[in-house]
Amino acid sequence: MDISSLPLGKRFRGYLPVIIDIETAGFNPKKNALLEIAAVIVEFNAEGDLEITERYSTHVIPFKNAELDESALKFNGIDPYHPFRMAIDEDEALHMIFRPIRQAVKRNLCTRAILVGHNPAFDLSFLNAAIQRTQNKRSPFHPFSTFDTATLGGLAYQETVLAKIAKAAGLEWDNEKAHSALYDAEMTAALFCKIVNRWKQLETAAGKL
């Protein structure tokens, strides 16, 4: 069965969950550079379980006059001007990330995407700042609503730190790969799918009682 034959349109009130992780050069979305962005799309499989279907990521060139916080760069290990980063500017990065998300929104009969993140307020603030800087008019995302896996992890696994939730959920966690946007987005997506699917299993079991 084709994935599109089981659209997500009715599961999350017309929203398509898209997991986003952003690495930055600080904490101020208007002053500090967005350096890396990753997006992971999740959809139903033939059994009606949520799974990862697409992954996208890119390094981003700091915008003009962006401030770079040395402590943030030391934490994420990014050299913004390293020649092998193959970074692209913000406008191109947003178009690259948004295009397949809009397609997924359409095929899942959704109205727009909703950002899923482990600290979604942080990621969404940087995403919205980049959208404003580039004057991008085709963002698929809801401008302020998010899904938070820290909250979901606290509910499902009694943990709120991503690495600890992942381990509690039976997922393998690699500290060497952490703080890469794509790795963190993939792990957050795997966790989100696991929690949503676990909820479906609990509902199914309850219905059989």
**Overall 3D geometry?**
globular
Q: What is the rounded Rg?
A: 17 Å
**Got a strand count?**
5
**What class would the helix/strand composition place it in?**
alpha/beta
What does this protein structure show overall?
By secondary structure, the chain is α/β, with parallel strands linked by helices. Helix content is 40%, strand content 22%. It has helices spanning 70-76, 90-107, 120-134, 149-157, 162-168, 181-207; strands spanning 15-24, 34-44, 50-59, 112-117, 141-148. The chain has a five-stranded mixed sheet with strand order 3-2-1-4-5, sandwiched between helices. Helix 4 crosses helix 6 (181-207). The protein is globular, with a radius of gyration of 17 Å. The two termini are 30 Å apart. The mean pLDDT is 94.
Could you give the topology of this structure?
Elements: E1 15-24, E2 34-44, E3 50-59, H1 70-76, H2 90-107, E4 112-117, H3 120-134, E5 141-148, H4 149-157, H5 162-168, H6 181-207
Parallel strand pairs: 1-4, 4-5
Antiparallel strand pairs: 1-2, 2-3
Keywords, please?
five-stranded mixed β-sheet, alpha/beta, 6 helices, single chain, 40% helix, 209 residues
Question: What would you say about this model in short?
Answer:
Helix content is 40%, strand content 22%. The chain has helices spanning 70-76, 90-107, 120-134, 149-157, 162-168, 181-207, and strands at 15-24, 34-44, 50-59, 112-117, 141-148. The mean pLDDT is 94.
